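dude i think i finally got it to work??
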Amino acid sequence: MKSKEEEIVDGLDKDKLVKDGLDEDQSADSSLTEVLRAATEKLPQPISLAQLQKISPSALAYLGDAVYELYVRTFYLLPLQRPETYHCLVVAQVRAEAQALHLRSLSPHLRNTELEIVRRGRNAATGRPKRVDPEIYQQATSLETLIGYLYLTDSQRLTELLQLLHFEK
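look at this
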């Protein structure tokens, strides 16, 4: 009897992927992009500029944390693995230290408005876990703030930046 994971793999049309000139890694990358687009293009309700300006950096970071974790979970979905393995891979990437590294890698690619959002997020970071250096925590919160902001304002740009991140498989 096949597990659900095996059934999903069997359901993939690998011949079509090969015929289209895509290998499994390219297919996974494009699938990840499509999932992210689908998640970001259909907001429950449009947010006006006036409403956006009222949202605190902490609230943007709260939203960004969820979007970032969903992206990371989707990234690690293929190849199929045990739930414990998924968990370890995802936790390694959503830790403050990893997020701070990701922010530093994205910094050269950020526009002025995005850098301003990052600054606002850094300044809004208050109260931190005792195990994390305050500067690291500020950088992680800044990344989450940026992701939350872009999720609400520019899903295409969010996808572009997230695809620049390098995760270990």
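The chain has one domain: 4-162.
im so relieved honestly
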